[in-house]
C-alpha cells in the first residue's frame, strides 16, 4: 500500500516529539563546529513579523533570540504534540494548522521560514503559494531542504537489512535541493541557494540504531539490530567513525509585488 508523505508525517509526528528529537540529536555529530541552527541564525532574513511553518519542537528558537531582536513570532505545525512543545517558546503565538491552508490574512508577515518540512507535504506547491500569499511585498522566504544524496550511508542500511522503508526519502515527495529552487522561483524572485558545509562522523553504533528506530513503523528485530551493529561497527573499526554525507541547502527568496516571480 502506498503511503502519502502527509500520512507518513502523521504516523511519525502527530502524537510524539520523540522521533524528531532523536533525528535532530544525530546531527550533534556534525563535522561543522557551527551547528545547523547557529548557521541558520546568521542567514535567516529575520525582521518584524516572522512565521515558521512546520516548526516542530521549536529548537530553532533556542538558538535565535527572537525577543531580543524585537521579532513578533508565530509558529505553526499540524501536530498537536509539536504545538504543545511550541507553546514553551517564550512570547510566540502558536497555531495548529495545515501548511497548505494557513489561517492568516494576506500580507501578514515579513519572513516565512520552512525548515525541513516541504518534503513532508502532499502538495508542496500549494504551500509555496500560501507562503507567498501571507508574505508582504518584499518579504522573504527561507526554506531548507535536502539533496537526493543526503545521508546516503544511512539510507543504504535499510535495504541491507531488509527494511527499504527506512530510506529517508521513501515516503517523501520529490522536493529536494535539486528540484526546489525552480519551484520556489515560480512564486518568488531573487532565489539564492547556499549549501550547509557539514557531514556526520558518528563514533558509536548507538546513535545509528536510535535513528533507524525512529524511522521504523515496527521495531527492528533482534537480527536486524545485530546486522546494523556489525555493518556500522566494521566501518568504525576501519575509519574511526561511521561517516555519513550530508547535503542540506538553505533557499532564500523574495516575494514580488504580486506574490510571484
Describe this structure in words.
Helix 6 (124-134) links the parallel strand 4 and strand 5 (135-146). Helices cover 34% and strands 20% of the residues. The chain is globular, with a radius of gyration of 19 Å. A seven-stranded mixed sheet has the order 3-2-1-4-5-9-6. A two-stranded antiparallel sheet has the order 7-8. The longest helix is centred in the C-terminal third of the chain and has 18 residues, at 222-239. The mean pLDDT is 95. It has helices at 5-13, 18-26, 36-41, 60-63, 80-86, 124-134, 152-155, 157-160, 180-185, 206-215, 222-239, and strands at residues 49-52, 72-77, 93-96, 109-115, 135-146, 189-195, 200-202, 242-244, 248-254. The chain has eleven helices and nine strands. Helix 2 (18-26) packs antiparallel against helix 10 (206-215). With 261 residues, the protein is of the alpha/beta class.
